[in-house]
Each structure stands twice: as structure tokens, then as C-alpha cells.
Request: fold
Amino acid sequence: MRTSIFLPLLFLALAPYVSHSSAATSSKWRGRAIYQLLTDRFALSNGSTTAPCPPGHQGFCGGTWRGIIRQLDYIQGMGFDAIWISPITKQIDDPSRAWHGYSQQDLYALNDNFGTARDLKDLATALHKRNMYLMVDIVVNHFGSSGFPTLTGGQGIYPFSSFDDFHNLCFVEDYTNQTNVEKCWLGDVLYPLADVKTTSPSVRDTYNDWIQQLMSNYSIDGLRIDTVKHVETSFWPQFQHAVGAYAVGEVADGDVRYVCPYQEGLAGVLNYPMYYSLTKFFSNTSHHSADLIAQMKDLSTQCRDPSLMAAFSENHDQPRFANATSDMMLAMNVLAFTMLADGIPIVYSGQEQHLAGGNDPFNREAIWQKGYHKNTTLYTFIKKLNRVRKYAIASSKANYTTSVGNIVYNDDHTLALKKGPLVAVYSNRGLFAFPYKVAIPNTGFGAKTVVTEVLSCRNMTTARDGSVNTRVWRGLPMVFLPSAGLKGSGICGR
Reply:
């Protein structure tokens, strides 16, 4: 027997596609910093830090919504004020395909491996008491399937159980052919993902009704949407309107001109173009900054609103940054850029522990086995970055969250960005680089002004033209702010 997780349909008859009032709009999300976690791999209900979960395990390890509640101090301790959790819907009856949440079978039921409806509501309540937001991952493009011929034969796919609700069986083989991308199935013969015919008016109406009630019932503040590029662009505007909150779509492609048009239908998209350029530059000391700079300029001119794109340097679909390089200085630089440059920053759980997993599923480690240590280099570093970002948002006369960072200095291995009240200097030279001098012009600082490099808490005085003349030590990133404004901020003990 299916237990419904939704409000009576009368609600929809009275108010079709009216967004629920508790949802957080895009403007409310701009100043947030998001901690992404995989529900099954983050925390156990009993708080164990020794429960087994072998690397690369394809099955449930026991993480729950109740477990997340137990570890909110750990997340908030880094300064995060939003979390993104795995899809919550009921999954296909195959743990190897279901544990991550992307093989749903029933929109109208929860994944009871993660907990009960009460547990999920309690998670939302616990977050909101801390002034934190809840972002839930959802899938629109597909359902878990064992093959097209049995779609109506007891697979449990609900509510789309008719042949007419799905595209004919073919697998995506040509990513240069958008029709193939949108109308064929992901997966393969052994593990097919039934592709929903989202051009159907009845399918669209069902999805719009469903998402309104899901968000309302569980006080969800925003969405991450999986496999967006596999759904026609005309689907998204009405769906975004029904959501009534910030929704960020996954368009996994490095081409700005391919990714940015999706922002015409959705509030935001994951900034994959920047991800590829960013990780390429910071993971290898021989790479030059030209490609990264060109990508930044391209994004600022091609995308409707880069400030609503989600910035990241790791996620559950890509190898960990530390899998490419163990250099801690490079890890600090890529994190600083992610947190302080344009967009809404996302940090993937385990990044703060410098995990080094490779391709999926080895990048989906059990976080509890790392002990939730709060004194690691990157945990404390992220805490500093979040504090600096919040200060910049609060103190910026020009809105920090909507302005675009301005490149004020660059050489082959160094990049300086002016954004709001701060100037950040990034380097890919790495831990073993010799110290070198840089002169940063156009800082916006006054002549002979005392500024603080807030990651090391060093003070220095600007030149007569306001420029910052400094050394890059051991490849460390630097962030400069006027010292006079730091009183009472908690930054560098002020």
C-alpha cells in the first residue's frame, strides 16, 4: 500500500501552479553557501563513526536524514547556511542502483532507507531553527527501469505507467545530437533509465502539481535538478514557476554557449564551464591562466545572471580535486576561488577532509569514517572563507552577491580579482614555489591605507596609488580587506 506524501488534490484545483509562500526566492539564496552531501554516505542515525562502507560500494551504507540532524553542528561550524541532500523519492528495488537516489520509481513515496516523513520534516525544522536552508535534489528526466516492455507490468513506476508517458527505447549515443540527448534513454540494457516524455501536456501538469506539494509538505527551500540537458528547454519555465524558489540545474557541459541558455528557463545552473577551467588551472602548476580568464569573460557576457550560477570545484559525479593533486596549497586556492568569486558556492562533503576519491563511485565516500574532525586544514580554512564572504556581503556598498568580479591583475600563474570590498589573489604555483612579488593595481583601496590579508592576518600599507605590493608565499591564496572596517567582524580576532 502506498502512503501518500501529498496534500489533497483540491488544493491544486483552487490554486494551480501557485508557489508556496515558505520557499526561498533566488534573491534569498544569493548570500548562501551550500554544503552538498549524499544522504546515504554522510551520517548514521546512531552517530557511529566506525560503521563499514567500503570504498566504491554500490549499495546502501545506512546514512539517514536523522543522521544529518545529528551532524548539523559540524556543517554549520564551517559557516554553511544551506545543505543539498540526495533525491528523496522511492527508488527501484535494487540497492546497487538505488542508494544514491537517481533511479526513482515513485514520485509519491519517500525513500524509506533514508528515514520517515517525520524524519525529513524534522530535518527541515532543525535547519530552519539555525537559519539554514534545505535544498533537495530531484530527477525529472527519467525513472529507474528494468526495460521498456514491462513499464506497465508491475514495475512500480508511478505516476507515469503508460507507454505514452515515455519515449521509445533508444540509448543516448551522440551528445552532439540534441534530439538524441533529449529523446533517448540514459543507462544501458542492463541498467536502463526510462526517459519521460516531458513534451506531453499531462506529464508537465503532473510534474508541476507534484513539485508544488513536495516543497510545501517538507518546507523545502530550493532544488538541484538532475540531468537538465536531457529535457527540452521549453519544459523548464513553467516548472520553475511552479517551484517558486531557487532551482539550479545540472547541465554537465563545458561549453558556455550550450550551458547558459538553460538559465532562461531556470533560475540557475551549475557552473560546469567554470568548473572545468578552474580545476584544470589549479590542479597543475604548468597550466597558464589564459583559459580561465577567457572562460570568466565568456560567462559574464553569455549568461543571463552569472551571480545565480552555482560555483563548485568538486561534486559526486567528478573525481575529487585531491585525486588530481595532493598539493594542499592548490586545494586552498581552488576552494578560495570557489567561495569568493562569482556565484553561489557549493562545497562537496569530504572536500573539507581533503578526500581523494576518483571517478564515481569512489568519490562517494562514507564521511562518518573520517570522524567529522573540525581541526583539519581545510575545515578551518573553509570556516575562514565563509566568514570573509559573509563580511563582504554585509559591508559591500555595491551588492557583493550580484556584482561580477573584476580581474585587476594576472600573469601566467597568478590571478587577482576585485569583488566588492575585497581583493583576492590566487596562484597555481603550488606548495614548492619560491616566493615571488606581485603588484596589484586598481584595488579600490585608498593611498597609504592599512589593509589586512585576512587568511594570514598580516597587515600592510598600500602604495600611493592604492596598489598592493606583496609576495606570494608557498603558493597560498590571499584576500585583502581594509583594516579599519574589520572591527567587530570576528575576522583576525577583530
Notes: Residues 1-21 have pLDDT under 50 and may be disordered. The first strand starts at residue 34 and ends at 36. The chain is about 30% helix and 20% strand.
